[in-house]
């Protein structure tokens, strides 16, 4: 068993018991709800959700398909997908960053020696929105980061209207972000990963 699959926050969550086939025999079913790191094979599903979520709002995506593949090849352990019966319904993609604040280069680079996890994108499939899935996935992701010895904090940039959502997730605003995309300006936000009560001996981390 890999170290990642042993982490408690990535274990499948069985929300209902398996259905039975005719004759009373159980047939194999996928976990009703499962959290796992993404792989390059998930890139197309990721991009389809992201494209629908962001293009209608901002006219562009935080990550294009080649960039999604890029990060899922370089640092799949910094991604997290939520699957319902094998179907991707929400995801987060991150990479490592080695400076105090984000810069334009952070949009495309993964810095393996960094201790800050740059969260590039969080998106939920349109049919699963308004159900609290984004908050739940972010909570799981932050708990997962606490199990990674190199992670010290999480960074992200968002538009003004998303600041309250991330504040509810425990992020604090650091002020205007240096990064711009076209005419869009962003607020940079931070969440500490180390030094929390979750890091107890019985946490499984």
UniProtKB/TrEMBL annotation:
GO cellular component: cytoplasm
Superkingdom in the source lineage: Eukaryota
Domain N-acetyltransferase: 33-194
Primary location class: cytoplasm
Pathway this chain belongs to: Aromatic compound metabolism; melatonin biosynthesis; melatonin from serotonin: step 1/2
CDD domains noted in UniProt: NAT_SF
Keywords on record: Acyltransferase, Biological rhythms, Cytoplasm, Melatonin biosynthesis, Phosphoprotein, Transferase
Cell compartments where the protein resides: Cytoplasm
One GO process term, biological-process aspect: response to light stimulus
GO MF annotations in UniProt: aralkylamine N-acetyltransferase activity
One Pfam short name: Acetyltransf_1
EC numbers for this chain: 2.3.1.87
Catalytic EC class: transferase
Reaction equation(s) it catalyzes: a 2-arylethylamine + acetyl-CoA = an N-acetyl-2-arylethylamine + CoA + H(+)
Cited InterPro entries: Acyl_CoA_acyltransferase, GNAT_dom, SNAT-like
Family according to the record: Belongs to the acetyltransferase family. AANAT subfamily.
The protein, known as: Serotonin N-acetyltransferase
Species of provenance: Menura novaehollandiae (superb lyrebird)
Gene: Aanat
